[in-house]
Specification:
With about 300 residues, the protein is an alpha/beta fold. Helix content is about 45%, strand content about 15%. It has 12 helices and 12 strands.
Length: about 300
């Protein structure tokens, strides 16, 4: 198997990482899937990565059909709406990788394209988005983690992705226990992304405040209990769960969204945990409390109340 064409759906912080890293190797065979107002916006405003304007080869979902690899990097809130477009791009041989946060985007996408098309993956990148500009430290970005869902063996499609990324500045890791690693990343997002956003502080608060650390540890404990109920052990923090920006002022994506007046992905993080807790009979009171706190902050940003 060889990957010659790549379609990226979602030209934001994560999608931009691959547009930046593959632009020279693939040239016109690297496509941004967009149509309507979003396509016009990208044409007019462009996308800047670390100060450089990216060449964008725009295609509608129908024009991108049959891409060898489809990277889904939309916001989680836009995933359901994007499913028809994902199905339009993917044909029988297309490998689909979800780069979204959380633990259920692969299941959602599989409902549209079939589970056999989906290669589980997640991203680890500390980036900052300002309008149509994205900034990240390429050298210190951990990058892409991926693997087969039911086998520790390296498959042909895993090798094809590695061959695609070899020779670029993109970083990748093939892992044997991808589902467990996805849960480690999810626990990191719930436990560190969300309290930081509620408090409006940099990541250094967890080292400087026992109260911030309590919120982090309590949230992580609830996610670990959910994982255990599914037969996945993340009780001890793994490699993915312990890496964090060294700068105390670093702000994760949820706080960046609030700072910019955008809606957050709290439903993907705390909302999904509450829903899974109800299904599995696992209490998640801290996740539920933080879910409502962040939705209230979104409403405040929206101007629903200003007093």
């Amino acid at each position: 198997m060889e990957i010659k064409t790549v379609a990226v759906m979602g030209a934001g912080a994560v999608g931009g990482y691959f547009l930046w890293g593959l632009r020279q190797k693939l040239a016109e065979n690297l496509w941004v899937v967009a149509q309507g107002g979003r396509a016009r916006q990208l044409q007019e405003q462009g996308l800047y990565i670390n100060g450089e304007r990216m060449p964008l080869h725009l295609r509608t979902p129908e024009q991108a059909r049959g891409a060898d690899l489809l990277l889904v990097a939309t916001k989680y809130g836009a995933l359901e709406e994007a499913l028809p477009d994902i199905a339009a791009v993917a044909d029988g041989h297309t490998v689909v990788m979800s780069l979204l946060n959380g633990v259920n985007s692969e299941d959602v996408i599989a409902g549209a394209v079939g589970r056999q098309a989906v290669l589980p993956a997640f991203m680890k990148i500390a980036s900052e988005r300002r309008g149509n500009a994205v900034f990240f430290d390429a050298q210190n970005t951990a990058g892409l983690y991926y693997g087969e869902p039911d086998s520790p063996a390296v498959s042909d499609r895993m090798r094809a992705v590695a061959a695609l990324l070899d020779g670029t500045l993109l970083h990748y890791h093939m892992v044997e226990d991808i589902q467990r690693q996805i849960w480690f990343k999810y626990a990191l997002n719930v436990s560190q992304n969300l309290p930081q956003a509620v408090l409006g502080v940099g990541v250094g608060a967890y080292a400087d405040s026992v109260h911030a650390a309590y919120l982090r540890d309590t949230l992580r404990g609830e996610v670990a209990a959910l994982a255990a109920a599914k037969g996945i052990d993340i009780a001890a923090p793994g490699e993915v769960g312990t890496t964090s920006p060294s700068a105390k002022r670093a702000r994760y994506s949820t706080l960046q969204d609030l700072d910019a007046g955008r809606h957050t992905e709290v439903d993907l993080f705390a909302g999904a945990a509450v829903e899974m807790g109800r299904e599995l009979g696992v209490p998640t009171p801290c996740c539920e409390f933080v879910l409502h706190l962040l939705h209230a902050l979104e409403e405040k940003n929206d101007g629903r109340f200003d007093y």
